[in-house]
Model the fold of this input.
Amino acid sequence: MKHILVALCLLSILSCQKDKAQADLIVTNANIYTVDDNFNKAEAFAVKDGKIVAVGTTSEISSTYKAIDTINADGNTVLPGFIDAHCHFLGLGFNQQQVNLVGTTSFEEMMKRVLDFQNENNKAFIFGRGWDENDWEDKELPTKNLLDKLYPNTPIALTRIDGHAILANQAALDLGGVTVTSKVEGGEVVIENGKPTGILIDNAQKLVLDHWPKPSRADYVNALLEAQKIAFSLGLTTVDDAGLSKEAIEIIDSLQTSGDLKMRMYAMVSYSEENLDYFLDKGITKTDYLNVRSFKVYADGALGSRGAMLKAPYSDKPNHLGLMVTDLETIKTAAERIANSDFQMNTHAIGDSANRAVLETYNKVLKGKNDRRWRVEHAQIISDEDFEFYKNVMPSIQPTHATSDMYWAEDRIGATRIKGAYAYKQLLNAYGKVALGTDFPVEQVSPFLTFYAAVARQDLEAYPEGGFQMENALSREETLKGMTIWAAYSNFEEKEKGSIEVGKFADFIMLDKDIMTVEAKAIPEIKVLKTVVGGEVQ
Done:
């Protein structure tokens, strides 16, 4: 009798299983923030062919679907995969092959890292990135004197953290024939006591870097795969690479086609007339993994290196306004050409003068339309009267810039202008959405630092007490949207990603803490338990 009952139970189970729909993956017992239009929560969902086919309770999904693989989340939080709306993914990968200068606390420490790197690698050319004189006790820009003594014959270029200045030794300057008389539009060769200091700002960097050895295809491949490993470990499933060459985009496409690169990428084409001609003629490229439909243009430089273009002089450098990296007529011409296509224009603008110029240009060529989703990248310093121009222009902002820059930003622009700086809530109110990113490797890769900076407006030492200009903090819901569905919207991809909904890619992450309820100071320490792209655990 006992054997008969067991057999009947097995038959019943098999019969139930037979009636269930087949899925590839089922996620159950999860604390899911779907980030749909109503910001609904759920417990489970089913995945088939890389896309979500059902969302509901654990009971509903378990009773309707059977699957090859299952993930029992055990109550852990599940979110749509994070989208970094502004980063330098390829640059992060190349950084792994160079001298890492991030976090140096003195010029001497920077020199030690250069020495240690060269002793280990013996490179014919030395390249590094990440120094920031604002983190040093002596906050003056460094000079090349010691580099000249240590490496008189080896060209060295050490890039500032923001990518808008380099320190080059004499051997590197000689590559480009840089002298006290060298001039370049949109850049500056810094001169002291009648001699170049080795500091080249913005476009002046090209005088040296245009003569630097070009990376090989193998270098590109290694860089992309290294960056992918880092990004997946932190829950990123889509990255917007803010400025790529034609060659880089072609290599990315080939690696995604072969299946080696599984990171989804929104590629902003680095602006040049040649690239504009080529890609406007070619048209938009769109696959499940690659979207090429935007151009990245630089209006001005960075605030840290005093290259951001201001309406009035810098508070700590009278008679200095910064500079336009791309002249306004070129920006206007590019905008008109892009406006006559289906491409998007994404322009780096940090200073209040650069923002005003870009906003006026955008609004003129777009003729009041906001569905083109043209973006201002960074949008760091805005005059009160200019926020209204963001009504038709999407702000693409990086919250950790506020917490990194707040130690010295007011010195640069003064107590009045700082009120319109890093004004994320005002930008959100103006457009209705914001796209959030990190700008890595300028900042750290972690999206949890982005989230923390947006809501707490503090650094990891809880400075400043009470938060920096908290009237411009974002709520947790706004922040999560900015890192998922709004970022997807900024990429014209909100119908395929950015939320856990039927028909969208099964791109999601599982966390060890609930990012929406955990104490704010614990947000930076949240760990990613799983990163899933298209239903595949990475």
Observations:
- Residues 2-19 form the longest helix (18 residues).
- The chain has a mean pLDDT of 94.
- The two ends are 48 Å apart (CA to CA).
- The first strand starts at residue 21 and ends at 28.
